[in-house]
Amino acid sequence: MKNMGKNMLPKTGIYRFREWRGLVDSAYDYAMWCRLWYKLIRWAVSHPVQNVKALFRYRWMFTYLTVPSFFDRCCEGFKGAALRAGRNNFMCLTDCVIDYLDTLFSADMELHPGSRKAMELNKRIICMDELVPAILTAGFPEAKSLLYQMIPVYLPSLINQHSTTHYISESELRGLPADVCPLPSFEAGVAIDDDYPKVGCCMLTCNMPCDGSIMTTAVQDRRHGLPTHPVNVPLRWLQDEVQDYAVEELLSAIRFLEEQTGMSYDWDKLREACENWNEEQKLKFEKWEFNRTKYPPHTGSSAWMYRIFEHQVVCVSPVALANDRKVNKILEKEVRKGNCKKDIRYRAVIWNTPSNNYANFNNWILNAWGIESVIEMIDIHGTELIDTSTRESMLLGVANMIQTSTMRAHTKGGYEVMVGDLWRRFDEFNCDFVILFDQISCKGVGAINGLFEESARKRGVKLCKVRQDLMEPTSISRRDMRADVNTFMSTVINAEPLDPTLIEFDDDESW
User: Fold this and answer.
1) What CA–CA distance (Å, rounded) separates 410 from 328?
2) What is the dihedral of CA 122, 124, 128, 132, to 10 degrees?
C-alpha cells in the first residue's frame, strides 16, 4: 500500500481505515483480526469479575486493551507468506498469554484475598526472572512457572510506548538516576507502585542481563516477599571452565525448587522438553536459511518478538512447535516459488537490543525505504541443540541456553560474540549495510560503540547508528529514530524513499 502516511490520524500513527493489501491478503488479514478479537472477548467473559478487578487494580492492565492495534502495527506492509507467518506467530502468542493471564489472575492474592483456591494454586506456581527460560522448570510437570516481570513489564513496554513512563518516574522520584537503563528502572517502579500480582510459592532470580537488573531484584524482593534463590549465570560463557559452575548453579536451583514445592524433579520430563526445544531450534535454522535467499520471507517485528517469546516462555510447549511447523510450510512454499511480495531495495543486519517502544521499527524501514532486516542480534540467542543422552548433558545444554538468553548472548561474553558475530552474520546474509542501535542508557554496549565504527571502516561497510533508549520514549522518540535513518539514507546511501509519506510524521501520542 503506497502513501501509507496519508492514511494516519494526526499525531497518532493510527490508520483511519484498514490497510489495503489486495483482495486475498486483505480478506485474510481481516479474518485473523476478527479471530483475535474472538479470542480476547472469549477470555474476557470467561472470568468477568476477576478480569475487571485486574483491569482496575493494575495500571499496566489497560495496555492490553490495545493489543489488536499493536498486532496490526507489527504486520504493516506485509503480504503473502510474510503476512501469514506474522499473523500465525501473533495468534500463537495470544493463546499463550491468555493462558498466562488466567493462571496469574486466578492465583493473585490481591484479587482473591483469603481465597483457599488461590492459596492452593500458588503452592504450584514457581516465579522466575523473565530472562530465565522456562525450560528449567519442565522437570516439575505439576507446577506452573511464571516469568514474574513478563506480564506487568516486558509485554506492556512493547504494546504501548507510554506504559513505562509512570513507573520510571516513580523510580526516579525516589532517587534512581535518570541515566539508568529503563528496563530495571521500569521493574523497580512497578514494585514501588505495588503493581506486581501477589503469586507463587518461591522465586528464582538471576544476574541477567546486567548489574542494573541485579540491583532492582532487591526492590522487587521486598514486594513479593517469597523465598528466593539466585541463579548466578557466568559472564564469560564461551569459556569451557565456567560450565561446571553453571551446571552446579542449576542443580542448586533444582534442589531449592524441590524443597519449596515438595515435588521431585522428573528428568524424563526435562528430556521431553529438551527434545521439543531441539525441534523448535531446527525449524528456526530453516527460517534463517530462507532469509539467506534472494526472497527473505520471515523478517520484521513478528520474527524477533516471537523468537524471544519462544525462547523464554514456550520453549516447552507443543503449541509453539505446531505453529513453527505450520509457519515453515508457508515460508518454504514462497521461497520455492521465488515469490516475494515485498519491494526490497537493501538488505540490512540490525545489531544491538531493539527499542521496545518502537516494536514495529522493522516494518517502517521496509515500507519507507525498502530496507529488509534479514537478520538481527536479538534473534540470535540460545542457538545450540541440547544433548539429551544424560542428565549431565541436558543440564549443560540448559545452562548454555540460559547463558545465551535474550539480551545476554552478545552483550556478555567478550569482544568476539558482540563484534565478531556481527560480521559473520553480515556476510552470511549478504547484507548491504548495518543498522546499529545506540542504546543511550546501556553503559556496557555504549562503551564499545567505537569498536563497531572502527571495524566497519576497516571493512568498508556503511553503518547507520540509530539512537534509542530501549523502552523510554521521552528521551529518544520514535520520530528521532526515524530521523537518524532518514539522514543516513539520504546523505550516505543517496537513496530516494520508497514511500515519501512515511518519512516525516508525528506519532508521539500513539500507543
Assistant:
1) 26
2) -160
